[in-house]
Amino acid sequence: MAGEGNEGKYEFLYHIADAKFRAYGSTMEEAFENAALAMFNVMIDTKNLKPRQVREIELPSSDIKMLLADWLSELLYLFEVDGIVFCEFKIDRIEKTGEGFSLTGKARGEPIDLSRHRFDTQVKAVTFHELEVQQNEEGFWVQVVVDT
């Protein structure tokens, strides 16, 4: 899997059939950003990508784990439908609402160009298997298994 140079942001964990990773951040927003970075590094080495296009993302969700799954699923959807491979993620805020949680952020990347972009693994979907959102003394961490 790609993603060298992202030490401390995320780590890949063993999973027998799919890709599993844990992402870290001093804030929940940063942990969600790093989860997106990890997911795209399952597919392609993002360090050579340019943040040429931006997509604004606003999501409501019933709980924080669902918000994480919705965030990553929305990025996969945009990747597939708009043909953009993302390399930079910025979440402006994650807020608790009366209905659950909401997220406002941006993803930046470039149009897919198969003559330049070499994909390692296809991520088909975000799963709920072993999905975690946790806080500890160092900040936040999230754990995700994606179907490959």
Describe the structure.
The structure is a single chain. The chain is built from two helices and eight strands. Helix 1 (28-43) runs parallel beside helix 2 (64-82). It has helices at residues 28-43, 64-82; strands at 10-13, 19-25, 53-61, 84-96, 101-111, 125-126, 132-136, 139-147. The longest helix is centred in the middle third of the chain and has 19 residues, at 64-82. It starts with 9 loop residues before the first strand and ends with a strand. Helices cover 24% and strands 41% of the residues. Strands 1, 2, 6, 7 and 8 form a five-stranded antiparallel β-sheet that branches. It has a three-stranded antiparallel β-sheet with strand order 3-5-4. It is an alpha+beta fold and 148 residues long. It has a single domain, classed as Archease domain (Archease, Possible Chaperone, Chain: A, domain 1, 3-Layer(bab) Sandwich).
User: Could you state the CATH homologous superfamily?
Assistant: Archease domain
Beta-strand segment tally: 8
The radius of gyration over CA amounts to 14 Å
What class do helices, strands and sheet pairing give? alpha+beta
Number of domains: 1
**pLDDT < 50 stretches:** none
The level 1 CATH classification is: Alpha Beta
How far from one another are the termini? 12 Å
One letter per element, helices H and strands E, the order comes to: EEHEHEEEEE
Q: What do we call the CATH topology?
A: Archease, Possible Chaperone, Chain: A, domain 1
Shape: globular
Helix fraction, binned, reads 10-25%
**What is the level-2 CATH architecture name?**
3-Layer(bab) Sandwich
How large is the share of residues in beta strands?
Answer: 35-45%
Helical run tally: 2
Largest sheet: 5 strands, antiparallel
Q: Estimate the mean pLDDT confidence.
A: 93
